[in-house]
Amino acid sequence: NTNEKFVSQCHAQQSLNRMRDLCLADKLTDITLVVSNIEITAHRLVLSSA
């Protein structure tokens, strides 16, 4: 049936949790923000989506 679809109630939260875990582990971070000598690593894709 072509009208069937998959719906995940927790996909967004699980994705955000996984991205946070990767960032905290300093994995897949591709940009470093520097403010007042404080360095913050981040995901460029996440920053661009804001």
UniProtKB/TrEMBL annotation:
It comes from the Eukaryota. It comes from Parasteatoda tepidariorum (Common house spider). SUPFAM superfamilies: POZ domain. Gene3D superfamilies: Potassium Channel Kv1.1, Chain A. This is Kelch-like protein 1. PROSITE patterns: BTB. Pfam families: BTB. Residues 29-50 form the BTB domain.
